[in-house]
Write a structure and sequence with these properties.
- With 335 residues, the protein is mostly helical.
- 78% of the residues lie in helices and 0% in strands.
- It is built from twelve helices and no strands.
- The relative contact order is 0.23.
- The model has no long low-confidence stretch (mean pLDDT 83).
């Protein structure tokens, strides 16, 4: 990667912009972590977001930085990276996040960022700028993450139903109201561990492009702390418009269903983060919620609502890529 002539002001601006995206990621995806625990009445919204934010940050001591490495070095050719590409990618992703947040659609901040990177890189250097192996893995998990969430969520629901088949509804509700605190914490841990690292990867590639860090250098600790802090603060302020869609419009959840959905989603996030794959926490928890509903009966799922969410997923990467390409061109004029 060639070292770029980039002013300290531009570098600082882009780092702040990346942290703004990280904050919005937490803000936008807060619903994923708290929707089930709030909609089942286990926690009040303010308590739920505080717990989710805390476990977003605690993830700093749990997960290796494999996802950050994938974003920073495994999606687009490092030689193409410059401040214009990073600017375009971030602006494209932020614009799509704002649009979907406004309409209450639980789209993927992760795939908005991937789409932004692809759009800005292709605008600069064409499709040769893309790293096929990394993007294929990410695209594969666009399908696998909700599918795994669905399978784990449904499987957990079936296992729990068999284990507690002779228990009264009151006993089950009381037990799983407590257990859902653990499952919500696990999901928030996985959310922070996977999503915060995506912004770390962006800042990492920016620092390498600017010559501040060498490609073989480890990710600076101040970047790690800043990104975990930003996503935690975003979660703390919360994306309330999306909570109702995730928590009740897809299927009606009780504490036992909320526990199974969160646990199934957490397992999926832990697996993906261990493999270094940046997945969508939105896709994952939606798949798990649908799996829980479908395990009871297919009619328990509002497939029309789920279909609208899927359309938002389909449009995320091309829409954010298009916005990023325009932002890249605009960035070349002003930066």
């Amino acid at each position: 990667m060639q070292t770029l002539h980039m002013s300290l002001t531009v570098l600082a601006f882009l780092i702040v912009l990346a942290l703004v995206f990280d904050f919005m990621n937490g803000f936008h995806d807060a619903a994923n972590a708290i929707a089930t625990v709030v909609s089942t009445g286990v926690l009040k919204p303010q308590t739920a977001v505080a717990m989710a934010a805390a476990f977003n940050f605690i993830a700093i001591g749990v997960f290796h930085l494999k996802v950050a490495s994938m974003i920073g070095k495994g999606t687009i050719d490092p030689h193409v990276i410059d401040h214009y590409v990073v600017f375009g990618a971030l602006v494209g992703a932020i614009m799509w996040n704002v649009v979907t947040w406004y309409f209450g659609l639980p789209s993927s901040s992760s795939h908005a960022l991937i789409g932004g990177l692809v759009g800005a890189a292709v605008a600069k250097a064409g499709t040769d700028a893309l790293v096929a192996s990394g993007l294929i893995k990410i695209i594969l998990f666009i399908v696998l993450s909700p599918l795994l969430g669905f399978i784990f969520g449904a499987l957990m629901m079936v296992i729990v139903s068999w284990l507690f088949v002779r228990s009264s509804q009151r006993t089950v509700d009381r037990l799983f109201r407590r257990l859902q605190l653990i499952s919500a914490a696990m999901y928030s841990l996985g959310h922070g561990g996977n999503d915060a690292q995506k912004t770390m990867g962006i800042i990492w590639m920016l620092l390498i492009a600017a010559g501040v860090s060498a490609p073989a250098d480890p990710l600076p600790m101040w970047v790690v702390i800043s990104c975990y802090s930003a996503i935690s603060l975003g979660t703390l302020f919360g994306g309330w418009r999306i909570v109702k869609t995730m928590g009740q419009k897809i299927t009606k959840l009780k504490p036992v269903g909320g526990f199974c959905a969160e646990t199934g989603g957490a397992f999926t996030l832990f697996l993906a983060t261990a493999l270094g794959v940046p997945v969508s926490t939105t896709h994952t928890i939606t798949g798990a919620i649908v799996g829980v509903g479908a395990s009871r009966k297919m009619s328990a799922v509002r497939w029309g609502v789920a279909g609208n969410i899927v359309w938002a997923w389909i449009f995320t990467i091309p829409a954010s890529a298009f916005a990023a390409a325009i932002a890249w061109w605009f960035g070349t004029m002003i930066l």
